[in-house]
Amino acid sequence: MSRPGKSRRDSVEAAAPVDKKRYREDLRALQIELARLQRHVIAEGGRVLVVLEGRDAAGKDGAIKRIVQHLSPRDTRVVAPGKPSDRERSEWYFQRFVEHLPAAEEIVLFNRSWYNRAGVERVMGFCTSIELDAFMDAVGPFESLLVRDGIRLFKYYLDIDRDEQRRRLASRLKDPLKQWKNSPVDAVALKHRKAYSAARNAMLARTHHPAAPWHVVHSNDKRAARLNLIRDLLMRLPYDGRREALALPVPAVVLPYDSLAVENGALAP
Fold it and tell me: Domain coordinates of the chain in residue numbers?
């Protein structure tokens, strides 16, 4: 039985979209803050790891592009894991990701990550149920080890509804500059949407833990999603000279995952 009143997603959709002029102004201000943050990370020898997951066409590429656009390329890396090789398939599952973890003074962003196993690999049958269970049992301790060793780890799940996903996937087919985004997996994303939802729900429930909690980003409005993801990241990392008023995300756009996320409408079906 559904709960009375508006869901969290309803409150997001009812908000006025971010207009282009305001978006550009806010984005520039936030990117200046990101540059300040990076100076602090370099000065302190910090290690920052940001994991972005989400449905196909949820806006991960666009969000990452705006985060790294004006950061130092020597101290910033984007990792987008591809299909594992035969050798990698024979390794410990996390082994191919470990080499990409941040060293001192680095900010690393994963555009998808080891969570491929709980998402696309599960839905498309690229892993066995035994491999999936082993991953679910191991990922929490693995991430806890990273955090204990001093890595600042942040996990975001970008979520969109069915109609917006359909629109974006159709747009890719028509835009010659977005052809590289199309893949056989993308082509069946909508067909398997219910299975992806079930996989998402299980993944978030089993891999949300105190050392590395999940945050959900409502990304039907790309501009609002990008701005508020950056704000949330800035809020969670201490650095000198932070303009506190800028680092306050809209709670309805970026919110902590909780066990009632599906029931209360925080996640799209």
Answer: 8-256
3-state secondary structure string, the chain? CCCCCCCHHHHHHHCCCCCHHHHHHHHHHHHHHHHHHHHHHHHHCCEEEEEEEECCCCCHHHHHHHHHCCCCCCCEEEECCCCCCHHHHCCCCCHHHHCCCCCCCEEEEEECCHHHCCCHHHHHCCCCHHHHHHHHHHHHHHHHHHHHCCEEEEEEEEECCHHHHHHHHHHHHHCHHHHHHCCHHHHCCCCCHHHHHHHHHHHHHHHCECCECEEEEECCCHHHHHHHHHHHHHHHCCCCCCCCCCCCCCCCCEEECCCCCCCCCCCCC
Instruction: Say which CATH topology domain 8-256 has.
Output: Rossmann fold (3.40.50)
pLDDT digits (tens, 9 = 90+) for 145-181: 999 999 999 999 999 999 999 999 999 888 887 777 7
